[in-house]
Every structure is written in C-alpha cells, then in structure tokens.
Design a protein that fits this description.
globular, 77% helix
Length: 198
C-alpha cells in the first residue's frame, strides 16, 4: 500500500510541474496553451531516448529534455506571436497533435504505440527498492519546489508585472512602451521547458 501511495504522490508531482508551467503561461500572461501534452511528450521521449538508447546520464537526459522543449516552445511562440486567445490555442493544440502523431507512427525511433521501456534509474543500485521509491519521490518534490521558486521569482519581478499587464490588456501594455511580442516568446518557451521537465 505504501509503494502505491508513493507512486501516486510522484505522479502528482509531475502534474504539479505541468500546472505551474501552465499557470505561468495562461494564468499570469493570458497565453492560451493547449499544447501541454506535446511539450510533455517531447520532453519524456527526449529524456528516454537519450538515456536508454544513447546511454546518457539521467541528469543530462533531463537537461536535454528541458532544452529541446524550450527550443520548440520558442519556435511555436515565434510562429504564432501575433495570435491571441482562440487562435493561439488552435496553434498549440495543432503542435501537440503533430507531436502525438510523430511519436505514435515513427516506430524506428519511438517504438510506436508499444511505448518506450525506460529502465534508467539514478542511484538505483545504492538503495533498496522501497527506499528508491521514497528517493524518487523526494527528487520529484525537489523539482516541484525548484519550479515553484523560479515561477514565483518570475511573477514577482518587474517582468512579472509586464506579464500581468499583457494578460489584462496587451494594447494598453503596448501603448505604455512594453514590447508585447518580445515578452510573449520567452514566457511560452520557459513554460514549455518546465513542461519538458515534467
């Protein structure tokens, strides 16, 4: 029963990271992102493929997942920088669907609908199976706390006030001398990087 609760708490931690990233984009800046699953899947498969097939260390795989999700988040936001509300939602949803179709149909890379078995576990040989579940939960909690701390720092900074102004009325923010399009790209990219981390 304890291992089941630890597993559920670990998955809750993953979704907390996704919720914090979405709050940064949609809650604080008003950028509607329906492509969460695309960035999440991109990060998961990047980390999995690099650690399983290429033999990268766990932390290097996680860093690569965040970096690739950041790059794709920046690319999607640059392509849709003039869009708002429903139109941005459609573009991000389309991105998620493209990622899903690629991951599902490219058997040579992702093993298609069978999924990618990942047996890479950091420090797994050092501790017992029960202790490892608690360790992984603590590692996930650490990632959640780091994400929360970074998101809070962004929101409480002068940049965060500009994000709030963009959410409230981007025309007024533009009138007051804030370059709205220049501010939107980093917000979507940083949020996508956190989704890749999740």
């Amino acid at each position: 029963m304890l291992s089941y609760l630890i597993s559920i708490a670990t998955f809750v931690g993953f979704y907390m990271i996704l919720a914090l990233a979405l709050n940064l984009q949609w809650g604080r800046t008003g950028m509607v992102n329906f492509g969460i699953a695309g960035f999440f899947g991109l990060g998961a498969y990047t980390s999995g493929l690099l650690t399983v097939d290429a033999g990268w260390p766990f932390l290097a795989g996680v860093a690569a997942a965040c970096s690739l999700a950041f790059v794709f988040g920046a690319a999607v936001s640059m392509l849709s920088v003039r869009l708002r509300d429903d139109f941005l939602a459609i573009v991000t949803l389309g991105f998620a669907e493209v990622v899903r179709l690629i991951l599902l149909n490219e058997d040579w890379l992702t093993r298609g609908p069978r999924g990618l078995p990942i047996d890479v576990q950091p420090l797994s040989g050092v501790m017992s199976r029960d202790a490892y579940g608690i360790f992984y939960l603590c590692l996930t909690a650490l990632a959640v706390l780091a994400t929360y701390f970074i998101v809070q720092k962004l929101q409480n900074s002068p940049y965060g006030r500009v994000m709030k102004a963009i959410r409230e009325d981007d025309v007024v923010a533009e009138t007051l001398g804030k370059h709205v399009r220049l501010r939107i790209v980093p917000v979507l990219a940083i949020g996508a990087a956190f989704m890749g981390l999740g």
